[in-house]
Amino acid sequence: MLDSIPNHLFANILLRLPFESLLQSRRVSKSWRSLIDSPEFVRMHFDAFHLKSSKSQDNETFRIVSSTRNNFYTLDFDDIGAGKAIAKRLKPPLDHLGSDEVRLVGSCNGLLCLVYPNSSTILVWNPWIQKAWELPSPPVEYSMFGGADSLLGFGYDSVNDDYKVFNKMRFYDVFDEDQSTWSDEVYVYCFKYSSWRKMEHFQTNYTPSNSFFIPRDGSFVSGALHWMGGKDQNGVIDIMAFDLSTEEFRKMACPRQPERSFIYPHKLVALNGFLCFVSFYYGEDGGKCVDLWLMEEYGKVESWIKLTTIKLGYTDMMHMFCGFTPLAYSKNSRGLLSQIDGEKFLVYDFETQKMSDLRIDGAQVSFLHSVVNVGSLIRPHY
User: Fold this and answer.
1) Contact yes or no for 90/70 (Cβ under 8 A)
2) Which residues contact 65 (CB under 8 A, 6 or more apart)?
3) 40-75: pLDDT as tens digits
4) Which residue numbers delimit the F-box domain (predicted)?
5) Is residue 120 part of a domain?
6) Domain limits for position 19
């Protein structure tokens, strides 16, 4: 009977299914799977998701993908303000790497970018369709006694319809402490061409660090990757942005803030699609505070607004302070979901200005890092 239904009508029926039901439909038959996995249907499904999201007054239903040392879990929410989530373990993309530690670089359109530092493996993974694409190594040469730090980023180039991975590598001699002799190289991997391209010009004072407190991976917002830049001659800190379409760097101004006893470094994250500037400082009473700033109109310095100030109190554990990372907020329930990296999740109530621990059912593990993720059928290339 279904064979008699034209493909375009059948596709419209499938588009109305919840995402989990759509994934199950891929297992019904080869013809169903072929239709659902086709580039045309994948694009229709993704466009329909964005249309539904734009018409919704709030983003109440979403997923968080969290990593442990070498495993991944999805945390499903119905409402941030409810203060609870259900954790489900995801099948890891590379079983053969065993206990190799994994770093969660970023998320874009349902795709996750991962790096396995011990094996220098970078891959892009769609956990919902269980497909992973391993990238070749960048075309670089290592000295005999050398090493390399990486500054990574992942996002979508909407102009050229291409997913890209950014990799800034700082090469150094382990026996030479003179940083002026170290060299920086920047490579961009384009999935459309399945190759790395070396960028000839890169100027920033930002230095990758193995410190727990310094976020190394770029935040993807409005077609660009963002990192905290260095201080200029006047001591002003700027934001370094890399446009994935033009493949050019530019500087952006941070929000203007009153003179305070800041605790460097500040942090940049993507929060509900906006660029979010996270500022850590000591309050007037000596307690530790966090200001969250949103850039309402991307690229316009005057559009920075302060979302809220969170008082974390007098904790002596610095990682509990600088490891604070906002993930998502709900306008309707006025709840903010955040994570203390490597420790726990917190829910902040905007109205009561109180913080509470998130209750997680289904897993008793410590999550290192987390990103907001959407269920999609997207592949980085076809």
Assistant:
1) no
2) 72, 73, 74, 75, 90, 104, 107, 112, 127, 370, 371, 373
3) 999 998 888 765 654 444 444 568 999 887 789 998
4) 1-44
5) yes
6) 1-55
Asked whether residue 132 carries a pLDDT value surpassing 90, the answer given is yes
Name 281's Cβ contacts closer than 8 Å, sequence gap at least 6: 260, 261, 262, 263, 288, 289, 291
Question: What's at 103, amino acid-wise?
Answer: R
CA of residue 213 relative to chain centroid, distance? 17
Co-location of 21 and 162 in the same domain:
no
CA distance 249 to 203: 8
d(CA 265, CA 321): 11
Query: Does residue 27 carry a pLDDT above 70?
Result: yes
**Backbone phi, psi, residue 334, to 5°:** 60, 40
Strand partners, 121: 116
* Residue 46, both tokens: 């993704």
Question: In this predicted model, what pLDDT tens digit does every residue of 150-182 receive, in sequence order?
Answer: 789 999 999 999 999 999 887 666 566 665 556
* No. of helices (H) and no. of strands (E), the chain: 5, 26
> Which neighbouring-strand residues pair with 238?
253
267, β-bridge pairs: 278
Residues 207-213: contacts with CB under 8 Å, at least 24 apart: 207/170, 207/179, 208/149, 208/150, 208/151, 208/168, 208/170, 209/149, 210/149, 212/319, 212/322, 212/323, 212/341, 213/265, 213/318, 213/319, 213/322, 213/323
Q: How many domains does the chain have?
A: 2
Name 80's Cβ contacts closer than 8 Å, sequence gap at least 6.
60, 328, 329, 330, 333, 335, 336, 337, 347
State the residue for tokens 């077609």. 223
